[in-house]
Amino acid sequence: MNNDLHDAPFDLIFDRATVIDGTGAPSYVADVAISGDRIGMIGDLSDRAAVRRVDAKGLILSPGFIDVHTHQDNALLVGPEMAPSVSQGITTIVTGNCGISLAPLVRDTVPAPLDLLVSGTSGPFIFSTFAAYLDAVRSASPAVNAAPLVGHSTLRVAVMEDVTQPATDAEIEAMKALLDECMRAGAIGMSSGLFYPPARGSKADEVVALLEVVSAYGGVYTTHMRDEADAIMDSLDESFNTARSADVPLIISHHKCMGQRNFGRSVDTLARIDAAAEEQSIALDAYPYVAGSSSLLHDLAAKSSSTQITWSTPYPDLAGRTVTDIAAEWGISEDAAIDRLKPGGAIYHMMSQEDLDRIISHPKCMIGSDGLPHDKMPHPRLWGTFPRVLGHFCRERGLFPLEDIVRRMTQLPAQEYGLVDRGTLRVGAFADLVLFDADRVGDRATYDDPATPADGIEMVVVNGQQVGGTRRSGRVLTRQG
Ligand SMILES: [Zn+2]
């Protein structure tokens, strides 16, 4: 009797799955075995032993989706079952986008948009070091893996007297020291949100100085650009120059052309990105909706055809109503109504379908939900993003092949963010997997009923363990090499 390791039973075998491996290669039918936290074998495993078998006939088995754009830093701690993510087939999230991360910062109250991480409630910005935050995530044992970015605005709020100003040399040095601790603790890079008030005052030399720290550790730079409307071309150039000066890979966050008079400009922005990408590493992300969501801000409402409140500290019961509606009821202007409703959050209808279709079809466009998990009436992207791309954009409208969009949800982000042995379904890789029904997968979350799980996601596996009930097997994915 041969008793060697090769004959030990596998922990789990998916029988007759249609495998999409994340590389963009055509799908094929095979059995896939899991051994511990890794993929053990792929092929005809009908005579191999397994502790458990799952009949995957007719279903797609692919690497678990990587949500590259989230604000779930705090959700990992307070809602570690991560239902909005898991129900979409997501197995890894990137946190700390748009310049805002939960650490390193100790503060009771924070300016918008940092309040998005906690939706206006006071605290819990309680982590003076990034290492302490990552330890808290590990202790919470979330259901999905988390790859953390450090937010530039968080660093500014932590060290600066007046965040509306450019940082002084001393403040830049203080931010560099904080950032160095974050990168040593394992952060995968830095994000910026130059559009937002706490970062708008920063100059290129400040961002470059910080990115040089990121570069020394091999991290990435993601940016919510200074302008996604009239001055979008200048903002693209600023992003390219900054990343190139510090020699870091660049990711343009939630790319969009905002406001009606900028509709159609994605032809030019994508051409500019393609041209720059011949000289430096550039990728982008997008969510599959023509409405965005953020803090309640006048300059976003001004570009929006309709603004719907997602949360309001003074008027919590008005979440879900539009500003137009509320202003009419109060008999005041919409601007005055916004002032009364703040601090709060909103959904802004401000993009064109044509631009969205073009951007989300780009070969370097990854998918990021940008979901806001603590909002009372959140944008439906929190629960719907990945199934909406697979169902509505891929299957129903045929904008791209399934293998290509799975690649942009798995292998491409793993490569861009340096997530080793993730994002590809192959022997030896981590067993982060999603089993889904390509004929049925689709979003059900709507603007009126946003917290609705999607259809067609049959099973999710994180680090070899099926997610469900109290089983939570996510890890903190720190920067490697
Ligand atoms: Zn953003």
What does it look like?
The chain is globular. The protein folds into two domains: 64-290 and 351-421, TIM Barrel (Alpha-Beta Barrel); 295-350, D-aminoacylase. Domain 3 (Dna Ligase, domain 1, 2-Layer Sandwich), CATH 3.30.1490. It is of the alpha/beta class. The strands form four sheets. Strands 1, 2, 3, 4, 5, 19, 20 and 21 form an eight-stranded mixed β-sheet that branches. An eight-stranded parallel β-sheet has the order 6-7-10-11-12-13-14-18. The longest helix has 17 residues, at 169-185. It has helices at residues 75-78, 83-86, 130-140, 152-159, 169-185, 197-200, 204-216, 232-246, 266-276, 298-301, 323-330, 334-341, 353-360, 381-396, 402-409, 411-416, and strands spanning 12-19, 28-35, 38-43, 53-55, 60-63, 65-67, 90-95, 105-107, 125-127, 145-151, 189-193, 220-224, 250-252, 282-286, 291-295, 307-312, 344-349, 365-367, 433-436, 457-462, 465-466. The protein is built from 16 helices and 21 strands. The structure holds zinc ion.
